[in-house]
Amino acid sequence: MAAPALAQWQWIDNAGRKVYSDTAPPAGTPDKNILKRPAAAAGPMSASPAHPPVPAAASSSSPGDAAAPPAPQAPGVDKELEARKKEAEAAEAAKKKQEAEKLARARAENCQRAKTAKTTLDSGQRLATTNAKGEREIMDDARRASEAQRLQQIIASDCGPLPQ
């Protein structure tokens, strides 16, 4: 009864579950996910073709020994990945901040222009515009009222706080 218990494989599958079997894990299983190999699998003759022979230190039957060698490699990769992730997040945050500043400058400029135009419009002076033919036209009261309403909408949207 002890012999079959020694010939057990233990690994973590793609779904993250522990699998116990008397056959070797599938060919796509990384070595870091293999937690335990049978003692016979450590030898060069009986090693699974899907997995290269394991060094003597990693072929121990205790799960603690088998999991120990991959541990130093994983944190190095994780630190590098974390550094890249932080760098990408910082670049994205800087890009968003730059876009927000650009939008704020455009809003401030539009606000200032609209206020200046509204002040000129409210002064009561005669205002002239140029039509599509290049002819000069004096603004009538209806056109002045519609332009005042348009400028007031611009002031309301661009001179207040940013919409969330």
Automatic annotation (TrEMBL):
Q: Where in the sequence does UniProt note compositional bias of the Polar residues kind?
A: 117-130
Basic and acidic residues bias locations:
77-112
Q: What domain of life does the native source organism fall in?
A: Bacteria
Compositional bias segments (type: Low complexity): 38-49, 56-68
Q: Where is this region: Disordered?
A: 13-130
Any idea what this protein is called?
A: DUF4124 domain-containing protein
* Highest classification ranks of the organism: Bacteria, Pseudomonadati, Pseudomonadota, Betaproteobacteria, Burkholderiales
